[in-house]
Amino acid sequence: MIALFAAGAGRALEAGFDGVEIHGAHGYLIDQFINLKWNQRTDDWGGEKRCRFAAAVTRAVLAECGAGRTLLRFSPGWSTPGSGWQQPAETLPLLLDTLWDAGLRILHASHGEYDQPNLPAELLPAELRPASGLLPLHQATRALWKGQLVGVGSLTPARAEAALALGEVDATAFARALLANPDFVSRVRGGHELRVYRPDYLTKLV
Ligand SMILES: Cc1cc2nc3c(=O)[nH]c(=O)nc-3n(C[C@H](O)[C@H](O)[C@H](O)COP(=O)(O)O)c2cc1C
User: Is the shortest distance between the CB of 67 and ligand 1 below 6 Å?
Assistant: First the structure.
């Protein structure tokens, strides 16, 4: 599987893509290793070593594409209730350290709502913890990650600009706004209003 990830990444560059994003989020294979809820292995790929598979895939993809063209997307909590990481406070630093040691330098922290606080404030040093006791994913990740960070989740162009200006993240991603606005870039550049996403737009894409 590790070699297959690398081969797929290599083919993506060959096909002309500028980079690849390893899907380590949303309950897919890599996330199944990271999440103790699913990973109940007692060998060298479970427990304290549950992030080893993510690191092994990352190393293999980095060897194929290089650190400037490789991102990894991860998600401690995602849209299906109860499907997030079992121990986010222990797992987040473990994952980020493991990925950094593997040579990764660009991370994509995936959450459906960029500003929604859903991680324990204990991830930050005591003096930086908000009184609410909870942190949004981008803030927790920023505090623990020395590399570049991409944020996402119901962002508007204005909120994305603010996030960049404040240094919360280094880049922002959009999904539904792009689906609803094929001319997203020119609309944003021109200061034009965006069409609001509706799920039924998907029926026209497939
Ligand atoms: C129709 C649809 C399909 C999606 N498919 C994927 C997917 O295959 N992989 C993935 O990582 N995220 C997927 N997402 C999540 C988006 O990448 C994004 O993280 C999420 O929609 C939040 O960003 P947004 O608020 O800008 O839409 C999908 C989202 C939508 C609406």
Answer: no
